[in-house]
Amino acid sequence: FDANSETASAASIASLLGGLEADALIRQASAAFKHIELSQLTFAELADKSPNPELSKRARHSWLGHVDAFISHSWSDEAKMKWSALSVWSEQFKTEHGRYPKLWFDKCCINQNDIETDLQCLPIFLAGCKQLVIVLGETYLTRLWCILEIFSFIHMGGSKHNITILSGLKGGQSLSSTSQILTKKFDVCQCQCTDPQDQQKILAVIVKAFSGTDRFNS
């Protein structure tokens, strides 16, 4: 996987988040990049909202560019709907490709004993995946790390053809209509982060790229 423009763009975002030089972050991300298959998880493990370092032991090292999908989701969204959406998509992928997809899934692919270090590499991890799979639940567009993942994908020149949006909404809710409602009232400054320092860093990256938040919101 060459350090092409896509990876360089991701590294520039990561550098703003972590304060390290882009080359150093690419080396760090390359060493930490992993994948897992959904079958290696149970529903109970996905539903558990607390970090579990044991899960990262199941993930295998991968080369940047060789993972099928980056799973973007909110830990606060309904686990049952998320599990159902990912299970159906994973089976569809197997039907088309003859194998289950290799996933970058934060619950398993981030070192839960050193979360901060791996989070610095998040944009590069995203660049190392062939597509972005969004599990859109009710809280997704309120979580700032989720917004950063979308921003990073767009900033890297990602194509809409490489984005898959799965419904993580509760039964009966239309994905398209709910997306429109959530988007209309979207304000990145109202999005939440567990760590206030992360919130400041992410907003600073967006403000720098868009010369403010109004253009980003629109």
In short, what is this structure?
The chain has 218 residues and is α/β, with parallel strands linked by helices.
Verbal overview:
- The strands form 2 sheets. Strands 4-3-5-6 form a 4-stranded parallel beta sheet.
- It is about 50% helix and about 10% strand.
- It is of the alpha/beta class and about 220 residues long.
- Strand 3 (about 65-70), helix 4 and strand 4 form a beta-alpha-beta unit.
Mean pLDDT: 86
Share of helix, binned: 40-55%
Total number of beta strands: 6
Rg calculated over all Cα atoms: 16 Å
Per the principal axes of the C-alpha atoms, what is the gross shape? globular
H/E element sequence:
HHEHEEHEHHHEHEHHH
Spatial sequence of strands, sheet with the most strands: 4-3-5-6
Core attributes:
218 residues; globular; 11 helices; four-stranded parallel sheet; alpha/beta; two-stranded antiparallel ribbon
Topology at a glance:
Blueprint: H1 5-18, H2 22-32, E1 34-35, H3 43-47, E2 60-61, E3 67-72, H4 79-97, E4 103-104, H5 106-109, H6 115-119, H7 122-127, E5 129-136, H8 144-155, E6 163-167, H9 175-184, H10 196-210, H11 214-217
Parallel strand pairs: 3-4, 3-5, 5-6
Antiparallel strand pairs: 1-2
Helix pairs in contact: 1-2
